[in-house]
Amino acid sequence: MNLFEEPLGGFRFLVVLDPAVAYLPPAQALLVPIVAVGAFQECRGLAGDLEVLAYAEGGRNDFVHQLPVRHTWGRISLRRGLVRDQALWGWYQAGLTGSLGARRDGCIVAMNEMGLPAMAWPFYGGLAAKWTGPEFSALAGAVALEGLEIAHHGLEQVVLLPAAV
Which fold has domain 8-46+74-159? Predict the structure, then answer.
């Protein structure tokens, strides 16, 4: 099995607020964990959807035309343990006080088993659309989690080349 056929673990990923990270040379990509904005427990919503309109043409009974209408992107949802770092709240707050919101480009980076960047999903024009604070319960010993949903203009998928050993 070659390097590109091995599945990546879904538990090793980073979030950075710079899409250029996806295009770094391998030697510089090793420094990505240093500039990451946080360690997140969960990332969801790397998704796109093409709206399709079914159009039945008169006289054609063997199929229905499927016409593309518009493309939409899913919201990226990040969740992490509550920490004292105010970066997520600060981004959300800047969007509330700014007239057009605080748009940021960023990147979700999946790491391989050796902790090196393997794949990346740069996103563009991201807005901190929803912040979710922690839920507290005296009956549970769980970690307090905060979340952030990012609405964006689009994303790409980039396969990163392995660093030379």
Answer: Pnp Oxidase; Chain A (2.30.110)
